[in-house]
Fold this protein.
Amino acid sequence: MQITDVDVWVVNLPLTNPFTSSFETKTGETRTIVRIRTDSGIEGWGETMWGRPVAALVRRFAEDLRGTSPFALEAFHRKQHMVPFFHGYLGYAAIAAIDVACWDVIGKASGQSLLNLLGGPVRESVPITALITRADGSSPHAIAQHAERVVAEGGFTAVKLKGTTDAHGDVEILRALREQLPGSLLRVDPNAAWSVPDTVRAGRALEELDLEYLEDPCVGIEGMSQVHEKVRIPLCTNMCVVRFEDFAPAVRMRAVDVIHGDVYKWGGIAATKALAAHCETFGLGMNLHSGGELGIATAAHLAVVASTPVLSTAIDSMYYLHADDIVEPLRFESGALHVPEGPGLGVTVDEDKLRRYAELNEREGDLTG
C-alpha cells in the first residue's frame, strides 16, 4: 500500500461562547485537516492545531509522502526529525497531522480500532474537565454558581479555572468554587501569568482547598522548582516540559508532579505514549492538554487515554464547547466522552461541513483570539 495524495484544509469553527484565558479570548478554533489517500482506496484523516502556517508545512511533507507506505511511521518521523527544531510547535503539529492520518489508514487496513492498535482498552470512557473562566460571572460567587450549573448539567467530576494575572482574585474564585462544589476535583491554570512570589503566596492560601494540582502558575522549570519547595500542592505543566529534552531537568529539579501530554504538541501518537512511559517510570502523573480539538483529533486523544493506564484522571478537552463538528458528534454523557467504535479513528468526516468551515477560514483568516 502506498500514499498517492495528501489533501489539506484549514477550517474555522465557532465556540458556543467566548473562552477567556490569561492571554486571549477565543470565539472559535482554527484547525488544519488532512486526508491521506492510498492506492488501495483507503483514506485516512488527521487534524491538528492551528491553521495556515501548519497547513503549509503539511503540504511540504506531502511531496515526500507520495509513494511511501502509511505503515512506515518510523521512517517518516526520522526523516522529519529536525522540523520541530526549526519550526517549534508548528513543526510538531504538522508532523502529528500526518501521523494521525496514517494511524487512521493503518486501522482501516487492518480492520482494527486505533484503541486496539495501541494496546486495547484499560477504560471504556474518558472523563473530561469542566472549564471555567472569569467571563462566566461578575463575582467569585457568580462564577461558582455558574460552575455548579455546568457540573450539574454535564456530570463533570473535575473543574478547572483558567486563571488570570490576578493571583489574589483567582484565589477568591477558587474558594468560592470549593464552597459551591465540595466534592469536585479543582484545578487552576494561570498559563504562567503569576510571578514566583505571587505563586508562593497564592499556593499557600490554596493549600486548604485540596486542589488536585496547580498548573503552570509561573514561568519555567526553575520557577516551578522554587514554588515546589514552598507549596504543598502538586504542580502540573504543559508549558515548561514540552519536549523530551525538558524531562530530565524537570525531574532532577523536582519542578513538576504531573505532565500534560498532547498528540499535537508532542508530534504524534507514539511520542505521547512514550511520554506516558516516562511519567510512569519516574512516578509522575500525566494528563492531556487541550488545544481545541474537533472530532478527528479528539478521537485520537480518546484512544490514547483509553489505552494508557497512567492517564487516569479527567483530561482537558474543549470538545463540549464547540458549536459544531466536521464529524458526527462524539458521544458525551455523565461528564465523559466515549471512544468511537470502528476501524481506525472510528469517525466519518462530513465533507459538506468540511467545505463550509474551510470557506469560513478563507473569509475570516486564521483565528488568533
Observations:
- The chain has a mean pLDDT of 95.
- The first helix runs from residue 52 to 65.
